[in-house]
Amino acid sequence: MINTEEILSKVHKGFSLSEIIITCFVMAIIMLSISEFSWNVFAFSSKNSKVLEMTDQSRIFTERVTSQMLMASYIFPPGLEIYLSTDSSSFAINTEDSIAFLVEDGSSGDYIFYSFFISGDEFYEFRAKYPYTWVENTNPVSDFTYSYGVLSLLGTDVVASESTLSYSLNYENGITDKVLLGTIAAVDTTSINALIKSIEWDIKISKLNDKTMTIKGVSRNVPRYIQQSS
Description:
By secondary structure, the protein is of the alpha+beta class. It has helices at residues 4-13, 17-70; strands at 72-75, 81-85, 90-94, 99-104, 111-119, 122-128, 146-155, 158-169, 196-205, 211-218.
């Protein structure tokens, strides 16, 4: 005869301590596995989001630099120090690692000064507030040391120490136009009489797995050149 009281007694006793410990241990392993999987998914998603964000940012300021340089009438050669100021900040740039150029203002016939430069880990565009008057047959380098204007932040996470800038002359350093006349021989990119046609700027972005982004800017309005004194 079945002893129902004994069965009911065992049922009411529940799990033993060892069974509870084993169950908790198994559940902990399962929860840790789920947690690690969730964290990996989150980290992968976050990393991809940052890469996409930085790629989009890089595309924006690459397009900005190339489109502005396309209109340049004069690109300052490397090695020049220029002071820039706004209502709230000031910068000293050198065209060894920053680009500076003049764009003709169609409405007045004068020129607007532009610069793109890195400060800290940030990439900026500067636009002069007032036009520059380029006197016929003169070199802008000789009297351009300061500009006041407006600053725009275009990008972040730039590694300045690992970014490099190079310049190229226009063909034979010049073809005459309405402002500059004559010819100059034996001029290289570091000369004050250099007529720069294009730049190549390798910029390292830290959040893109330390990859380098290359900006190639070419002017359609240079060449120009300066009459050599006799």
